[in-house]
Write a structure and sequence with these properties.
The protein has six helices and ten strands; from the N terminus they run ααββαββααβαβββββ. By secondary structure, the chain is α+β, with helices and mostly antiparallel strands. The chain has a four-stranded antiparallel beta sheet. A two-stranded antiparallel ribbon has the order 1-2. It has a two-stranded antiparallel sheet with strand order 3-4.
């Protein structure tokens, strides 16, 4: 946003990056602005790539902005250097980028969470459904599926064949067995208030769908990242 402001002025920032129209209002269509996906390395230990994508090719102003993105700051403490590797359609980019990125960019029938999916609304689980673990799990599955389907529609993605909860623990990093609840789910400006428990989700489509796929609350901050598994 700082680069855009410097290049084009505060009123000239491309709506694809700001997510707001010229008057400051949010865009009616949430999938009409850029998706920022932080892609981990093979061991899931650190962020290796940042993928910025649109539902269309970048225009000249957007490309000029990306070409000047050389670094990012981590809460003002650390400066992380960046190297622009490629500006192209995601399918062409996947062919020339490291193989690890194929699982996040190329079309796939089945996608599963790498980071927890955070719900975007209150789940309508009845009080009577909370007394039995089995009944509660079925109610949670029902409500989470509704939420994911709503998110997919907002992002302009097709409706899936199925949406399934994936119980933790999920994977091992550096010998440590991680559960979905082990992920950092708070933001600095929220005064470290812990967010709701995140969930593992598997989505199966009827036809292959390309990535990157980021869904749910705080998806722009690393939550709800999906990886192709088929």
């Amino acid at each position: 946003m700082g680069i855009c402001s410097r290049l084009y002025g505060e009123r000239g920032i491309p709506v694809s990056f700001s997510g707001h129209d010229p008057s400051g209002g949010r865009l009616a269509s949430s999938h009409s602005h850029a998706v920022f996906a932080c892609i981990p390395d093979e061991t899931l230990s650190f962020i290796e790539h940042i993928v910025i994508s649109l539902g269309r090719p970048f225009d000249s102003r957007e490309r000029a902005t990306l070409e000047q993105l050389f670094k990012v700051w981590d809460e003002g403490k650390l400066t992380w250097p960046l190297e622009l590797v490629c500006i192209d359609t995601h399918l062409n980019a996947a062919k020339i980028l490291p193989e690890t990125l194929e699982y996040y960019l190329l079309p796939s029938l089945v996608w599963a969470t790498v980071t927890p999916y955070m719900k975007t609304r209150h789940l309508r689980v009845k009080r009577s459904e909370k007394h039995s673990p089995g009944v509660f799990y079925n109610a949670l599955q029902r409500e989470m599926e509704k939420n994911v389907r709503e998110e997919l529609e907002r992002r302009g993605l097709p409706q899936p064949h199925s949406v399934t909860l994936t119980p933790g623990p999920c994977f091992t990093v550096n010998g440590q067995h991680l559960k979905w609840s082990d992920f950092e789910r708070s933001r600095t400006e929220s005064h470290d208030t812990e967010l709701d428990y995140g969930h593992g989700i598997t989505i199966e489509f009827s036809e292959p769908v390309p990535g990157p796929i980021n869904l749910g609350r705080h998806s722009h901050f690393g939550m709800g990242l999906f990886r192709a598994i088929e």
